[in-house]
Amino acid sequence: MGILEEKLTAQVGAEQISTFESGNEMAAMAAAQINYHIMGYFPITPSTEVAQFLDQMKARGEHDIKLIPADGEHGSAGICYGAAATGARVFNATSANGFLYMIEQLPVQAGTRFPMVMNLVTRAVSGPLDIRGDHSDLYFGLNTGWVILTARTPQAVYDMNIMALKIAEHSKVRLPVIVAYDGFWTSHQKRRVQYFKDRRVVQQFVGECPTDYNFIRDPQKPVTIGAHMNGEDLMNNHFQQSEAMYNAGEVFREVSAEYAKLSGREYSVLDLYKMEDAEVALFLLNSAAESAKDVVDQLRDQGIKAGVISPNIIRPFPAKEIREALKNVKALLVGERADSYGAHGPNLTHEIKSALQDDKNNQTIVLSRVFGMGGKDFYASDAHEFFNMAIDAMEKGYAEKPFDYFGHVPGNPEKILKPVITPQQGDAYKSGLIEVKMDEETNKLKVKIPPLRMLTNKPKRIASGHGACPGCGIFGGLELFFKGIEGDIVTLFQTGCAYVTTTAYPYSSHKQTMMHNLFQNGAATLSGTVEAFMELKRRGEIQVSDDATFVMITGDGGMDIGMGSAIGTALRGHKLIMLEYDNEGYMNTGSQMSYSTPLGHMTSTSGVGKTQQGKSFHHKDTVQIMAATNIPYVFTGSEAFPQDLVKKGAKAQWYAQNVGPVYGKLLITCPLNWKSEDRYGTKILEEAVNSCFFPLYEVEQGVTAITYNPEEKKKRVSVTEWFKYMGKTKHLLKEENKHLVDEFEREVEKRWQRLKAKHENPWL
């Protein structure tokens, strides 16, 4: 970071502004005021807003942070590590499975001692998928070697983000720091906060960016980062890292005291609420502790000496302070929003018990309860029950049940859900009207389809009643493609709108077998399913028809983070279809930019303002990338050209059953995030095709053929005819953005001319 203005002499009680903001807003505010050099990021709920707010602030010229959109969380962690290795100040935010996806990188950064700050907006780790908050992601981070601060309120999120950088860069620490706060409680709920009016106050507090370490920044001073070590050296390395972690505890106290003088807000190692004479207490992380404090007041009015303990730092673990706080406590209930399966209690429970072992005089009875998983609310009445359990243990002198879950209920067999419709299979999905044959002379398939009205008797694969937005093009496009598929299908839906809107436990809109896996691994997962299916059949362990078709459905940017898995699946030659619906963004997490977002298009992370005009680089040509893997069939399709799409569906099935993998890409509408009217859905798709932005073609056995040429049909239009129907592109129609439109047109024309050349020459 460079200090943008002249240094400001810090004074006690520096001027602050009072407002109402959320935790995500305050994380972004702290990052903007610090003015980090780099943020590598990838959207995942509920941390996504942090990058969105920073993009909005960037568009307004409020900071100079270089925001780098990654292809996935693993990539974002790599971006951040690479930037930190130069000595740059680096920032990130993530949640849940995104945190787990990058976790391989986290010990690398800690072990090579490069500071940075990452906000972990805690959320349930799937499966099954649940996007609400618990601490199952946080607990995976306990052994990564990162310092971990925990923030109960939006105010604490702001303050700890400022403190975190100073701790990370301290000469006795030199470790990356996580600031963890609760998803959808602290992250999204607005509360009164104060922040420094002048960001120079913040910049002076964190100080100048250290430069006296071995960074990759001067070619005249070459360094080697991360050299291979043998066991003796690695032992020394980890010992030094361990010492640095414990140093971070002392540095936290120093930084906290210094920050208290500046802000008037003090963060001790433990937040102790009425613990001076407490006999019963709860130990709770983050927002739940705030809910329990009101209950403490009520119990105190009844003469019960109750208290609440909540740590502000859990790595290093504050064992000494916990022993001191529990010296006179007779019963403690540790509530945790995660479990350590099979360990008879979650992680912090065991760490507290371990800490108490070093105090031979301590007689505290420790109970452990797993609660609030998957965002299950924690109310004052729940805190009352926790205290009642602790009081019961105190009175009896022991805990009848030391470990248990809280809030789970037994199932009722009488209320089991029954299918609303009779499952359809086999002949129900065979129209007998589609004919696909290989032409031996041309080595291409010949497909005959009936008039589309004759295929309307073929039942839909997805039942009505799903939760898609009005005008969503996903299911119209998928169902039209499925009209070309005869017989049974097994689908895998990667995370995204199509999956989320059709499966909300205990309900499902899928009429045939469907499974789910995450963005980054859908293709590999389905390839395992296909091969297991074939092997079970070969061994005679299952008896099923030969014409089942396996289809992976991806979209909402899934071919960014899932690109590696898709390419690997293609190269291995599994007999399946990979079908992408392209809505030009990460729509399921709130319309963030993906690599399929076109140049200049507005999303929630490619905003429009005085310093930027939408996405700054061109869209990824996924179809050509997949064609380069030399799989037997690749195609594009659109609901606006139904006959073309149904034929390609039939071809896709034939190749997937008889030769090998298929990839197809459908452009579909997203009225909500494209800011377009529902009634223009088909028109928008037509103009995208007629402008040659989304050409309709296929690559069959390596030979490219354009299946619809708008120039030959005299229907070629400018991309501006497409732009005018969407709010996300209206700014491109302004005269001052003509240079962007011209650049866009040039790129479209270049790709179109190359495609025509391939169409005309089978060797290209």
From TrEMBL:
Keyword annotations for this protein? 4Fe-4S, Electron transport, Iron, Iron-sulfur, Metal-binding, Oxidoreductase, Pyruvate, Transport
For the keyword Kinase, the answer is no
Domain Pyruvate:ferredoxin oxidoreductase core: residue ranges: 278-382
Q: Name one GO biological process term.
A: response to oxidative stress
Domain named Thiamine pyrophosphate enzyme TPP-binding: residues: 495-653
Q: Which PANTHER family match?
A: PYRUVATE-FLAVODOXIN OXIDOREDUCTASE-RELATED (PTHR32154)
The UniProt similarity line reads: Belongs to the pyruvate:ferredoxin/flavodoxin oxidoreductase family.
Q: What is this protein called?
A: Pyruvate synthase
